[in-house]
Every structure is written in C-alpha cells, then in structure tokens.
Design goal:
One of its GO terms (cellular component) is nucleus. 42% of the residues lie in helices and 6% in strands. By secondary structure, the chain is mostly helical.
C-alpha cells in the first residue's frame, strides 16, 4: 500500500506542476562562478521534507540551482556559430584542484620553428595521396611502400657512361646512398629531440658554439681532434699559443703524460711525499695501523691451526669411507668403487 501511495503522489506532482517557472527565489543568493560553471548554495535545508521525501526534494533543489546558473549564463554575451548558440565565459574565480598535472605542449621541431618564422603554412586538407605517373600510366602514392615498388619498376634500367667501370653495381650504390640518407635523417631527428630537451650531446662530428660554451671544453675538443691520428698527434702542427688540455691524457689512449720535474732539494722532496700521503689518507680506503711482524705471525698461526682442525675432522668423521680397489680384477658389467682415471 505504501508503494502505491508514493506512486500516486508522484503522479499528482507531475500533473499539478508539469513545467516550473524560470524565476527561482532564494533567501540567500547563490555564489555563482561562471568561469568554472560552479554554483554554491548556502541556504539551510528543510530537514522534515528531506527525511520524508529525499529523492523528490533533492531533485527539486538541484533543478532550482541549475536554473539560476542557466539564467546567469544567458546574461553573458552570446553569438551564433552555425546552428549552435555560444556564450563566452569569463575568467574563473575559483581555482579547482587537478588530479593530474596539466600536459605540457610538445616542443616544435626544427622545420616547424623555421616555418613559423617564415610564415609557411602547410595545407593538408584536400591534398590527395595519389599522383598520376605518365610512364607507368597509373596512380602512384606520394609516399609509402607502394611508391617504392613503383620507383623500382621505373628504374629497372639505368644508363651507364662510357668511362664507367663495368664491375661497379649501380643498384647497390643507390641502395647504399638511400641507407646513408635514412641514417642521416635519423641522426638529425635524435639531435632535434636532444636539443628540445636541453640534453648535452657527446663530442661527435663537427662541433658548434652550442656544444662548447666554455673555453676549457673547446681546448679539450681541439686536443682530441689533434691526437686522433695513428701517431697520436706527433706529426700534427699546433696552433700558435695552443696547449694540451688539462687531464686529457687519461681519455686519449697512447698520449704521453707530462712527467713532473724532479725535486731540486730535500725540502721539496719532503713536501711531495707529504702531499702523496695526505692524498692517500683523504680517500675512503681503510689503512690498518698495526705491527706487521706480529700481524703476519698471527695470521700464519691461525692458518696452520685451521688446517689441522680440518684434517682432524676428516679423520674422525663417521660418514667418510675409504674407496676400495678392484684388486686387479675388473668386471665391466658391474660397478666397482675406486679411483677413476681421468
């Protein structure tokens, strides 16, 4: 019976109020932020109706609040775009928290930066992928695997010069040149990615100012370039006022390190030895300060005692058995214990 009464009451509400008015009255005005489409209602709830009819009460409350929000939207400047009606929202007042970080825009490639500076616009819409070829008399795609097959059909015969060597394979040279172009493009692509992410590239190829911001790095590159010969730069002429970079002899194998001059007197020799000891002690290596004579004797005694203990344990162990010999007679069909020859 209760279920029937609730259904009848809902039907009466629908008949009495099929469409509510646009005007909604509130004791306290809503706090509306049109930038984020947020409406905050600070009015007190009717607890009696909320307990008796929670669904209908919440629906009517949300309907009234949404109606007030839509009324505010219609007060904004509106324009018609094709069939739809658009309203320009103002800047949001509330800063809503995000569950994830805002995605960063992708960095522009080298070509995109150049096109942006020069004002070049690429028009992809309406551009067909296929292109008519007069030789093959068919439509060929401008890129893809079918284009490569069509190119092979067109270049099945290559005209050779009179002075050309007959042993040279022209098709093999063309394939090698294509692979070189592909590898060059891939290297350039990786360089663009490294440049956009501010990653320092290794010292390969022709250097530029971007690779060597410091004079020390430039001197290192010059030294490596001069010593990258079979003679390790022995017969390479140096520029005026040019010197080898510091600490570069460790990186270049075969390059002779400059030896330090011998100490002229006893005081200099003592200073060098003291600096050497200080460098050793500054490191994290453990240095044992003990009497080496007693230390070695104790180590020997402990080693001999350990060996004796091991031998005694082997003699008195119950599980170990001495292997038996065959006594000159050996049956190949039976397994006999004993020492195996290797």
């Amino acid at each position: 019976m209760d279920l029937v009464k609730s259904i009848l009451e809902n039907e009466k509400e629908k008949d009495t109020d099929p469409s509510k008015s646009i005007l909604v009255q509130k004791d306290v005005d809503l706090d509306i932020d049109l930038g984020t489409l947020l409406a905050s209602d600070y009015n007190a709830l009717d607890i009696k109706t909320l307990k008796s009819k929670p669904d209908s009460y919440l629906k009517s409350l949300t309907r009234d609040n949404v109606q007030l929000l839509i009324n505010k939207i219609w007060e904004l400047p509106i324009e018609r775009v094709d069939v739809a009606i658009m309203a320009t929202l103002p800047k949001p007042e509330y800063v809503l928290p995000r569950s994830r970080v805002i995605p960063k825009p992708k960095p522009l490639t080298k070509w995109q930066q150049f096109a942006k500076q020069k004002g070049i616009q690429t028009k992809k819409k309406g551009k067909s992928k296929l292109k008519w070829d007069e030789e093959l008399k068919e439509w060929i795609p401008t890129y893809g695997y079918k284009r490569a097959k069509a190119q092979e059909q067109k270049e099945w015969l290559v005209e050779a010069n009179d002075n050309a060597d007959s042993t040279n394979d022209v098709f093999a040279k063309a394939k090698l040149a294509k692979k070189e172009r592909q590898s060059k493009n891939e290297l350039q692509r990786l360089r663009n990615i490294a440049k956009s992410r501010n990653i320092k590239l290794p010292r390969v190829g022709l250097p530029t100012k971007d690779h060597f911001p410091n004079s020390q790095q430039l001197s290192e590159a010059l030294t490596i370039a001069r010593t990258s010969t079979a003679s390790v730069g022995k017969f390479q002429s140096m520029l005026p006022k040019e010197k080898d970079a510091k600490g570069i002899a460790k990186e270049v194998s075969g390059m002779k390190r400059k030896r330090k001059a011998l100490p002229l007197n006893v005081v200099e020799e003592k200073c060098q030895n003291k600096n050497l000891v200080d460098n050793v002690l500054e490191k994290k290596t453990k240095v044992l300060h003990e009497n080496y004579l007693t230390g070695t004797s104790e180590i020997k005694q402990s080693a001999t005692s350990n060996n004796k203990k091991k031998k005694g344990a082997l003699k008195h162990s119950k599980g170990a058995k001495k292997p038996k010999a065959g006594k000159g007679k050996r049956d190949l069909h039976k397994k006999v214990g004993g020492r195996k020859r290797r």
